[in-house]
Structures are given as structure tokens and as C-alpha cells.
Amino acid sequence: MADGQDSDGAAPVRRIIHVDMDAFYASVEQRDDPALRGKPVAVGGGSMRGVVAAASYEARAFGVRSAMASVTAKRRCPDLLFVKPRFDVYKAVSAQIRDVFAEYTELIEPLSLDEAYLDVTDTVGAHGSATAIAQAIRAAIRERTGLTASAGVSYNKFIAKIASDQNKPDGICVIPPKRGPDFVATLPVSRFHGIGPVTAAKMARLGIETGADLRARPLAWLQAEFGKSAGYYHGAARGQDDRPVRPNRAHKSVGAERTFETDLIDLPDLLAKLDIAIDAAWTRVERAGLRGRTVTLKVKFADFRQITRARSFAAPVASRAEFAGAGAALLSALMPLPLGVRLIGLTLSGFEGADVPAGGQLGLAL
Asked: Which residues are in the UmuC domain (predicted)?
């Protein structure tokens, strides 16, 4: 088998690792402040309108999760300790982690400060297996930063990402090609990367709860129900994902959106929902270390008609307050609305720099 290809000329089998730090922000805070160790910690605003950016595993045991309203988190965990985020520290630690990755491959696609895909197909031979590389990376991260990381090892990005969450915290999960389809079949579709809560709820109404349920639906049926996402769902349900690891992938935009259970039309209600999306969006902006000049509002009406409104600034948007102010102004300018709104979102784009980082051979051992 020359050039790492199968005898029938099939494409090489890749070796992909997804590394995901364990409760990254909260773990950094617990590392740096011994008084926080072993206690439920939430990184983010502790105010009435604040939102949890990250939660320690002690907090997660009480049901506290990222993007949860602070008041809800405190209700679930009365002893919860809030700490303000220190993104400069998180970025510095992330750079240390990135240096570890670079010792094993140049094909690194960061997704945020705390996770990345690595393609080790061309370097795995020198280390024995992709699993050995993942273990060495996890050990080096622990030694240099005092933090733990979990890893998923597989033949594509989709499965590697799911696998990294399988044995958290401080775990590893290896899914070779022969196990891929069966592994996916047993999973709830809510765990599929790219299937959010709204889509998962729609699938549940259609009788799709697991990967096996999704695999049983024909592509044409999926296209009728889910449009352009159908191809991805069809392949994922079969353990297929041809997306390459793309180093230095340029972010076109970063943001967040929220879909409502009931349509909204009054400005105060919409501003409250927009504020939730802003918290999620700005956390992603900070995680990626980005600064952009254009703020774009997305509004989807009850009849599914969608509009966007944007404003560009001379200087990059430097704070959440500026980002939120621009979004509120764009939304206010639309009033009064002709119909109720079912979805609202806000994104930042026009980033500084041309390329801002985002994020196999047959027979090589996983």
C-alpha cells in the first residue's frame, strides 16, 4: 500500500486528536488561588444579570453550567464562589499549551483558548501511535501548566471531538475506524457537535433520539426537514466527516444567537434576550482573543423571514459594553416590528489582521 492509501485507492485514514482542557477558566483560578481548590467556582459575573462563563467540576455537580444566569447558578449552588475572568492569564496559559501541540505537529486548528484539533497523521510514525502522542501531550500540559486536559483520538474531527468529552475530566478515549459507526449509533444526537438544543428538540419530535435513529433517515428526508445541514447530519450518523484540520483558519465572524419558545415583539423583552446572546458571544470573542470593527444584528421573524443590520466602527470594539451598546442601538432602530421575533443574535466581524487563528495513512496505529 503505497503512500498510505488503501489497495483500492481510497483516501488515507487520518489520525486526529481533539484536546480539550478540563474546566479551563475555573481550573486556572483554582490553580492560582489555593482557597478555591475543591470548592464550587464560577467564572463570570455574580450580579443579578450576570452569566456564568465557566464552572468548576465541583459546581457542575450542582447543575451549574456555562451560559447559565448567575442567579440560577447561585440558586442551584448556594455556596458557589464567583470570580472575575482574567483573560490575559488564560491567553498566556493557552500559549503554553499551543507550544506543546507544536512539538508534535504543525497541523493545529485552535477552536478557542482551551481546545484544538491536531492532525498527527504524518508525525505519528515517530511516536508509535496517535494515542501515544495524545498521552504525551496531556502529560506535558500537566507538567508545564499544572492543569489537566482530556483527549479524543480518532480518524476524523467529528468523532475525535465527541470522544474527548467521553472520559472527562483528565481522560482519553480512542475510537478507531472500525468502531466509529457503532460508537456514533449509541450516542444521543444532543451530543453531536453541530446539533444544538433547538435542533435536538426538533429531532426528538420527529422520533430521532440517537445516532442510530438519525442514520435510519434517508438523505432526501433529512434535506426536506433540515435543509443545507442535512448532508452533515447524514454523514455524521455514519461516522463520516471529511473536514480537514485547518491551521490558521480565519474567523469571519464570532457571535451567538438565541431562539425563543414564544415569539417576542416588545423592545424590553427583546433586549433582555439579546443580552443573553451578547454574554455568550462576548465570551467567545474573548476566548479567541479577537477584536473586530463590525457588529451585526440578526433577527428572524415568526414567519422565518430573516434580516440583518450592521454597524462598523473606526476602531475595534474593545469591550462588552461597546458590543452590547451597538447591538441595542441596531435593535432599537428596527422598532416597531411588523411581526413577532423567534430568534435574535449578535456577531462581531472585521477582525484585525488578515488571518486570525480559529481551528492518513492506512495501517498507522491509533
From this structure: 16-196
